[in-house]
Write a structure and sequence with these properties.
The chain is an alpha+beta fold. The chain is extended and about 100 Å long. The longest helix has about 55 residues. Helices cover about 45% and strands about 15% of the residues.
Length: about 475
């Protein structure tokens, strides 16, 4: 080839040619980048169009299938057939009608299933997006006993926070450095073992004496943690854990006491109970006597089974000075356990599950009043379904074993041996002792600590 007609970038060229070639190279790079961006944008448009058309296409398919079933005429015979008797004609007509009715029923069921799945998915997505997620768990804690053996168990730590104004100083928690009004007036574990054969709910007195670990400070106004920490305190009340350290601190304390792996945290504002109960149009509770509180007044004026409203429910779980209660804490714990059981039973009843208005109202009220971690529609349904239909022998309500008398600091004190026996039974899924022997004096330590797991017993399918 004639070298005079060739272009060689290595040969000597003038400045104008150099500038021109730089411009050409830059334009080429811009063009390539533009092509890549255009291709990526085209893929995104295609993906969006597919997602936008999918629900409409599914609905159209369902509608078309229904129309086809209802409007499609029965096929005529290909050729002429021999004359039929009236009995044969009647029988053939009945067969065609039965087949057509069966096809219609099948299509209707399919449509209902499709719509119900879509509604459930929508409700779950809406709730999970609206639910206030707050860091609450510590699933790698050294206090957890036999973590591998607890695989499949669902342990819900439920904390009820009463933020009402005008509370007496003795009802508050924390000091001037804390956050007054942020009180865990209810602390309860709902344990559902992997085999789903029982549910055990264990409550903890708000004045239980604990050894509180170091925790990040909690700001209830923003539902977030601060950078500074609250120092450990060897002797403290249980409800101070939430006051100074929020959900994470409560979880640490409960795992320290129980050895259980807490994998769900549910924080509930007491004020939310009102709207939850009103959404399902009341909850039925049973009381041996009227509930008359020295501070709140007459909460429930009659004994026996009573359907209570939202306002009554709010005072029912708050009441702490009820006439006839042997102790303020234990009487309230009993009422709170009864109320939560009744609320779950009501929500899982056909009167609520099959009523779209009631169910959506309850879900909305629950989402507004709760916060936590690893909590959504699926997790709450696990708990509710486990309790639904179970007899009293399968749903246990317990209070963590204490001496029953406040010490000189006004705190409830754990009975260590009985406490260990209860939580070992839950961890190993073995029967709970109905009556535990009286503890020796050495068991009533003033500040509980973690207890080591003994025996390494394996889980069994038995339950008590």
């Amino acid at each position: 080839m004639d070298r005079l007609t060739m272009t060689d970038e290595l040969e000597a060229i003038d400045d104008a040619t150099i500038i021109k070639r730089k411009i050409d190279h830059t334009l080429a790079r811009f063009s390539a980048a533009h092509d890549e961006l255009e291709a990526e944008e085209a893929k995104k448009r295609e993906r969006r169009e597919r997602l936008a058309l999918r629900p409409a296409a599914l609905l159209e398919q369902t509608r078309t299938a229904l129309q086809r079933v209802v409007t499609t005429a029965d096929p005529e015979p290909a050729g002429e057939s021999a004359p039929q008797t009236r009995l044969q004609e009647k029988k053939e007509r009945k067969t065609r009608q039965t087949a057509k009715a069966g096809r219609i029923a099948a299509a209707v069921v399919a449509a209902l299933v499709f719509l119900s799945i879509g509604s459930a998915w929508g409700a779950q997505t809406w709730f999970d997006a609206k639910f206030n997620n707050v860091a609450s768990l510590d699933e790698d804690s050294a206090d957890i006993q036999d973590a591998a053996g607890q695989t499949g168990d669902e342990n819900f730590l439920m904390v009820g926070s009463d933020t009402r104004d005008g509370a007496a100083a003795e009802d508050g928690v924390g000091d001037t450095e804390g956050t007054p009004g942020a009180r865990s007036d209810t602390v309860m574990i709902a344990h559902v073992p992997a085999d789903r054969q029982r549910v055990v709910m264990v409550s903890f007195p708000r004045d239980l004496e604990i050894s509180r670990p170091e925790c990040k400070r909690w700001d209830p106004a923003t539902s977030s943690y601060k950078e500074e920490t609250s120092p450990a305190q060897k002797i403290a009340k249980l409800n101070t854990a939430y006051a100074v350290g929020g959900p994470q601190c409560v979880t640490k304390v409960i795992q320290q006491i129980t050895g259980m792996k807490i994998n769900h945290f549910v924080g509930i504002d007491f004020n939310g109970f009102k709207s939850m109960v009103d959404a399902v149009q009341g909850v039925t509770v049973y009381n041996e006597r009227p509930v008359d509180d020295d501070t709140l007044g007459m909460v429930i004026p009659q004994a026996g089974e009573v359907r209570i409203s939202g306002d009554q429910a709010l005072n029912y779980v708050r009441a702490r000075h009820v006439k006839g209660d042997p102790t303020s804490d234990y009487g309230r714990i009993k009422r709170q356990q009864a109320f939560l059981g009744a609320l779950l039973k009501t929500v899982m009843s056909k009167e609520v599950i099959l009523d779209t208005g009631k169910l959506s109202g309850f879900i909305d009220a629950f989402a507004k009043a709760t916060f936590g971690e690893n909590l959504g529609i699926k997790q709450m349904m696990t708990l509710a379904k486990s309790m639904r239909g179970m007899g009293s022998d399968k749903v246990k309500f317990l209070t963590v074993p204490t001496t029953g008398e406040a010490n000189k600091r006004g705190n409830e004190v754990l009975v260590q041996s009985r406490t260990k026996a209860v939580f070992d039974a839950l961890i190993n899924n073995t029967p709970l002792e109905e009556k535990a022997p009286a503890p020796p004096a050495s068991d009533t330590a003033s500040a509980p600590t973690s207890s080591a797991k003994s025996g390494g017993a394996k889980k069994s399918s038995s339950s008590g």
